[in-house]
Amino acid sequence: MLQNRSTGFWILISFLGMMTGTAFGEGIAAILPETSTALRSFFAGSLEFSIGPVGFDLVVFRFALEEIGFRLNLMSFVGLMLVGYLYRWF
After folding, report:
1. Which of 17, 21, 55, 83 could form a disulfide with 64 if both were Cys (CB 3.0 to 4.6 A apart)?
2. What is the pLDDT of residue 26?
3. Domain regions of the chain by residue span
4. What is the CA radius of gyration of the chain?
5. What is the mean pLDDT of residues 8-26?
6. At what angle do helices 7-31 and 74-87 cross, to 10 degrees?
7. What 3-state class would DSSP assign to 46?
C-alpha cells in the first residue's frame, strides 16, 4: 500500500502535517496566560527561515515574490508524526 504513493503525495502529507502542528502550537500559546512564559516559549518558540526576493523575467511573462518564509516549532514535528501515524490507518 505504501509503495503505490508518489513522491508528491508524501511531500504534501509532510507539509500539511507540519502546518497543522505549527498552527496547533501557536493556538496553544495564544490561549495560555501571560504569566506562563516558559510554556508559551515552549509551544510558540520557533525557527524561522525565509527565501527572497525571488523573481524571473521572460519577455512575455514576469514573476516576482518578495519572500517565502517558513516557521517551524516543536509542534510542527508532532503534527508530522501524527499525520504519519494516521496515514497507517487510511
Report:
1. 55
2. 86
3. 2-87
4. 18
5. 87
6. 130
7. strand
Q: What is the pTM (predicted TM-score) of this model?
A: 0.68
Return the C-alpha cell found at 31: 490561549
Looking up cell 526576493 gives 53
43, 73 contact by CB (below 8 A): yes
- pLDDT tens-place string over residues 37-79: 888 888 878 778 787 787 877 777 887 888 878 888 888 888 8
53 Cβ contact list (under 8 Å, min separation 6):
64, 65, 66, 67
Amino acid occupying residue 80: L
Give the span between the Cα atoms of 24 and 46, in whole angstroms.
13
CA distance 33 to 43: 13
**Alpha-helix runs per DSSP H in the chain:** 7-31, 37-44, 74-87
